[in-house]
Fold this sequence. Notes:
Blueprint: H1 10-14, H2 21-28, E1 39-43, H3 48-51, H4 53-90, H5 96-149, E2 152-157, H6 158-164, H7 177-187
Parallel strand pairs: 1-2
Helix pairs in contact: 4-5
Amino acid sequence: xxxxxxxxxxxxxxxxxxxxxxxxxxxxxxxxxxxxxxxxxxxxxxxxxxxxxxxxxxxxxxxxxxxxxxxxxxxxxxxxxxxxxxxxxxxxxxxxxxxxxxxxxxxxxxxxxxxxxxxxxxxxxxxxxxxxxxxxxxxxxxxxxxxxxxxxxxxxxxxxxxxxxxxxxxxxxxxxxxxxxxxxxxxxxxxxxxxxxxxxxxxx
Length: 204
């Protein structure tokens, strides 16, 4: 109902990071050009918000900023549930006018709560986009360098591929998610941040 799960927009925001620099250069060279020799890898960008220290810090900051309004929406949701229960149990014993009054109050609160939710969702998404963009730009460049150093010519985003059904199977050995996150965090440590938990590997 009136509910939002904060930090749930990572896949859409990070889905652009699917192709390495080498692969881009090959495509820019033209269809007739010889493709470079190299490896194909997959990465699960859905693990980045919780695994990349810098990115997690940004999400935590935005979450903290919006937490009071989120809690207000949770309070409204609880009120609506209680009002639904009251309407079901009390209306049979009330006059039609009193029952209508309860239903009208419920509808007004629900309408206002829905508007507040939509406003919060839009503002939260904008704040996440603005706050995380510098880190996402760094991640994209780091991914290009990471792939080039390891002779990887193509990196597929598991999050996007799973949604579109473009990958039916991948060898777990091609999944660079954990190593990439580890290397990025080593190169870009967050002072005072607790160690991040390694992401769970998705099954092929």
